[in-house]
Amino acid sequence: MASEYHRGDMDISEQVATFNLFNGLTKWGSLVMAALLLLLVLWFCTPAGFLGAFISAAVLAGLGVVFLREKPEAAH
User: Fold this and answer.
1) What is the spatial distance between Cα 63 and Cα 20, in angstroms, rounded to a whole number?
2) By the 8 A CB rule, do 75 and 41 touch?
3) What average pLDDT does range 35-51 have in this prediction?
4) How much is the pTM?
């Protein structure tokens, strides 16, 4: 019954875990796709060649890992 519902009493740990997993997959998947796209575009569409494209993609991936990783919680 609707009258048996009490706001805030439900365990939402599974929903939180699913939300965090989805956000993580989206974040890291976007970084992988961006690095792969950069690699392929520079390799096949510019005179940079494979080595230049690979270095650029590696730099993008490295910077992405630095900026997208989880930050430690600030102590209050």
Assistant:
1) 22
2) no
3) 96
4) 0.79
